[in-house]
Write a structure and sequence with these properties.
The strands form four sheets. Strands 14, 18, 19, 20, 21, 23, 24, 25 and 26 form a nine-stranded mixed sheet that branches. Strands 10, 11, 12, 13, 15, 16, 17 and 22 form an eight-stranded mixed sheet that branches. The protein has a six-stranded mixed sheet with strand order 2-4-3-7-8-9. It is globular. Strand 3 and strand 4 (170-176) form a beta hairpin. By secondary structure, it is an alpha/beta fold. The longest helix has 32 residues, at 74-105. It contains 20 helices and 26 strands. The chain folds into four domains: 1-106, Methane Monooxygenase Hydroxylase, Chain G, domain 1 (Up-down Bundle); 117-304, Polyphosphate kinase middle domain (polyphosphate kinase like), CATH 3.30.1840.10; 321-490, Endonuclease Chain A (Endonuclease, Chain A), CATH 3.30.870.10; 502-680, Endonuclease, Chain A (2-Layer Sandwich).
Length: 683
Amino acid sequence: MAKMKFINREISWLSFNERVLQEANDPSVPLIERIRFLGIFSNNRDEFFRVRVATLERLNDLGKSGKSHLGYDPEDVLSQIQEIVLNQERTFGKIYRYLRKELEKHEIYIIAEDKLNTEQGEFVKSYFEREVRGTLVPIMISKKQDLPKLKDNAIYLAVKLNTKDKKQPIYSIIEIPSLVLPRFLVLPNSEGKKYVMLLDDILRYNLEQIYHIFEFTSFEAYTFKITRDAELDIDDDLSTSWIEKLASSLKERKTGAPVRFVYDEAMPEDLLKILLNKLGVKNMDHLSPGARYHNFKDFMDFPNVGAKNLRNKKLPPSKHAFLESSKSILDAILKKDILLSYPYQSFSYIIDLLREAAIDPKVTRIQINLYRVAKRSKIINALINAVRNGKEVNVVLELTARFDEENNIKWSRKLQDEGVRIIHGVPGLKVHSKLILIDKKSKNGKVQQIAHIGTGNFHEGTANLYGDYSLLTSDSKIASEVGKLFEFFEVNYKRTLYRHLVVSPFNVRRRLNLLINNEIRNAKNGKKAKIILKLNNLVDELLIKKLYEASNAGVKIKLIIRGICSLVPDVKGQSENIEAYSIVDRFLEHARVMVFHNSGDSVYLLGSADWMTRNLDKRVEVLVPVYDKSIQEEIQLMLDMQMKDNVKRRLIDKKLSNKYVHDDGPEFRSQIEQYKYFKSLVK
């Protein structure tokens, strides 16, 4: 039998980010949004280097054992990554230059420091003195003195001051304060034209003021940045509290080993050489020459300038008809199961649910597990209010949510100060599930339980951008098992049998294998057999092999995978019955949904778990069966809409071509059609 084919996860991820770059190049996307997609692409790539490339570098340093751990040579993949990234960078530069010209057609100009007129110059100098100067700490580069550790994720100007006596130039570094000030300054309109200036160029315009004590004849300034290894090394010192260990490790992240040095390719060789020497960048593969500006992630916040049609039309979330007709959200859920679909419907119902539970005298306890929350979280406020109203509040707070660790440490301390009982996850397992359980006494004194199982975080900010589901139910079969899971969070040795919930790392593999095997059996018996999977990532080789087996048995499989897809579709003798697609549009497709035909009595699962080894074996994830037939029909309608998309759907194939799936029919853009559908449900 021929060896099964898989796509390397890192290469597949780069293909996903190429789909993001396609959005920046799509003329149907409003112009300002296209610029913002450049920012999203850049932000994604930074995280990729900080985490994935850094991990490959570590494993490559281990030699044979690293190769054995991965099952492939990390050095080969690092070489492929370098080649793909350089090609994408060239495409990125072309798109950016084109978009700047398009902006100019609308009389919007990104203006550099050498193009300012007198009036604009005065405005920029005034802004510099008022807002910028106090944030600057220039670092002088000396042969004898080491540089302080430069921050990951920050951008710097490398400055070369040419002196009057033409001896050795003076070198310096300034951090561009984009972490405390906006990256963009909108200048006053001039003759109907709009001007935007980057913070980098505001500094360049005022270099003479910054270095006024030196006698120099001219100066040059070039942007650079360092991307560092962002993986956390947490020791096993059991005498140190978990929060203290994590906080210490976070400090180390900020000065981790460099995995990429990005710089303006116009930087003179002497300046580049002294920087590399002082920063300890020795691996030439880490060098990434680029254009004048870096940290394009800030372009996600490009200002709203110009006509309204240059930006996306606002799509305010719809109300939920049944919840709107109910005086109490808790009572509404006690009557029937409810599905909320974000961002098409309002996330405020979840906040209102917790607010109501906080003041309802019949509610005795609220339990929730938090992975990511907003920096100004209304969810946290509702939980604090519940404690103040005498409720028992238990919060399972995952401290190691990547890049949210500091925020979660802050909230952990705040909640503990307010009397909330905090459980910091499960040793050895990251808690990624999205659960709420509310206990409410009924009239006869019995406890009724109301549960939430979702696909996305309790984060009111991302709920406006991420496509996710929340299932709200009082079904005792589901709610009682959610309760058992919260018991496990508290007492880790207390395991239980889950008959309804599908929970990793306990029964998820077994249950998914049983469901796929059932479809294989039906296909072999000549029955209709079908699987639909909507995931962020499909990587786990064992489950991919099971899908290949199902395909060979005749099971029809359709995949909607937003990000990484290691499965290779449409390969003879392996995956001929598998179609795979990806949708990248204005909202981030984030929901995980699984449908198994099951001889016509379809099984619908939704929840937090992607099909990645870490999610299946090393995290607490929860998938919930959807029993309500009307909710099943609604989920199926959403999936059908996505499979019908002929505007933003791309084909996932063995060549990673990312071809758009267009047809001759009328334009059908699934996210807009879903929005229209939910809008139509509210009179």
